[in-house]
Amino acid sequence: MPILLGCIADDFTGATDLASFLVASGMRTVQLIGVPTGPVDLDGADAVVIALKTRTQKTDQAVAESLLALQWLQQYQCEQYYFKYCSTFDSTADGNIGPISDALLDALGEKFTIACPSLPINGRAVYNGYLFVNGVLLNESGMQHHPLTPMTDANLVRVLDAQTRHSVGLVNHQVLDQGVEATGKAFGELAKQGHHYAIVDTLNYDHLVTIGHAARDLKLLTGGSGLAVGLADNFAAKGLLTKKADSGALSKVAGGIVLLSGSCSIATQEQVAQYRQDHPSLKVEPLKINDGSQTADDIVAWYKEQSVSRPALIYATDTPEAIKAVQQQLGVDAAGTLVEGVMAEVVRQLAQAGIRKFIVAGGETSGSVVQALNISAIKIGQSIAPGVPLTESISAQPQLLALKSGNFGDRDFFAKAVEAML
Ligand SMILES: Nc1ncnc2c1ncn2[C@@H]1O[C@H](COP(=O)(O)OP(=O)(O)OP(=O)(O)O)[C@@H](O)[C@H]1O
Ligand SMILES: O=C(O)[C@@H](O)C(=O)CO
């Protein structure tokens, strides 16, 4: 059975973000955790999103895993393929957006694609190639302090150009305002000039729809989740898709809820501060974890003492200064791995104790948690905030999950996520 859209996401919250937009656009969507190694029931899906954890991996490994995901998707002869990365273009010093995109283009025998991270509903817009987050240049938005992927340049033509073997052009907002035909023509002209990539300006929702429609004949698309909004129309216009109004309700799951935050993004810092005001919370201290004076067992024991009626928060979230101090002592990668490792161990133990509802902030953190839970596929439910759906593991004993990208959601996100799980 062919799949219309085969997607590869470079982190787990990014994957649910994309899946949520696809479902909202009328496509039945299944999200897979990693590349399946056995048979999978795709249940008549129009779109499949494979969630990888390649954003911060070593580049060679990230490219190899992305190609493996592509090969797996190709058995379903997808009409289009989609590489989903962060709306803030999060990359390490080595990439990985450029190298993965280059490899996917080569594997598909294609010479041109677009790069469109914008997500206006969450404040991400691209103007003359510069990425703004809530009206502020990317490199002044707080993303310059990201623990793993600090973004110090807002000019995406320059950023992508430094990561790819190929050249990068720009389609600006004036072209977008002229509509689908002019935008498609601009893609064709850049391709003719030998550019393999076009950064595409996007100031609003209508621009996203225009880009999606103009990209109907590109085999590979790359971008954030916003790029998804116009694609269902293309498949419907070709007679390949009947749009679905609703993805169906998720299971009711009884029992306690745990909230875990490993995100240090500005939005998460505010959400943690707000939730802590009237809920029990415990801070994970990387240096104490490192010297053994705080352990996963201690954290689990503390959680078990809390009242189920006020779901407890376990957080490593900290200020840029505190993170820098930890990273100086432990090393950047080691600090991240240490925190993710303890979160994963806590989740493993809580799952064994019968907890089946998890609210997690942070893409890398969500990756560790979902892997610890051995989840292989998830179903997408109602949206808690734009790009953050309630989800359910597809398993004999379903678990409810809310995986929040670092900078998504309002200040009261955690309370809303708890509410959605009751
Ligand atoms: N106090 C801390 N000190 C050092 N590293 C930390 C600390 N707290 C969290 N980290 C690490 O910082 C990283 C945060 O990345 P994560 O992807 O989870 O959040 P995010 O980047 O805000 O979310 P997203 O990728 O969805 O935008 C993780 O590797 C986490 O383990
Ligand atoms: O695009 C985004 O901002 C998110 O889906 C994400 O990838 C954050 O990790």
TrEMBL record:
Annotated GO MF terms: ATP binding; kinase activity
Catalytic activity reads: 3-dehydro-D-erythronate + ATP = 3-dehydro-4-O-phospho-D-erythronate + ADP + H(+); 3-dehydro-L-erythronate + ATP = 3-dehydro-4-O-phospho-L-erythronate + ADP + H(+)
Q: What UniProt keywords are attached to this protein's entry? A: ATP-binding, Carbohydrate metabolism, Kinase, Nucleotide-binding, Transferase
Q: Which Pfam families match?
A: NBD_C (PF17042), SBD_N (PF07005)
The record's annotation in SUPFAM superfamilies points to: YgbK-like (SSF142764)
The question of whether Amino-acid biosynthesis is a record keyword is answered with: no
The EC number on file is 2.7.1.217
Specify the superkingdom: Bacteria
Task: Give the Four-carbon acid sugar kinase nucleotide binding domain ranges.
Answer: 259-414
Q: Which InterPro entries match?
A: 4-carb_acid_sugar_kinase_N, 4-carb_acid_sugar_kinase_N_sf, NBD_C, NBD_C_sf, OtnK
Q: Four-carbon acid sugar kinase N-terminal domain location, by residue? A: 5-230
Name the enzyme's class: transferase
The protein's role, per its UniProt record? Catalyzes the ATP-dependent phosphorylation of 3-oxo-tetronate to 3-oxo-tetronate 4-phosphate.
Q: Which family does it belong to?
A: Belongs to the four-carbon acid sugar kinase family.
Q: Under which name does UniProt file this protein?
A: 3-oxo-tetronate kinase
Q: Which organism is it from?
A: Reinekea forsetii
**What are the top taxonomic ranks of the organism?**
Bacteria, Pseudomonadati, Pseudomonadota, Gammaproteobacteria, Oceanospirillales
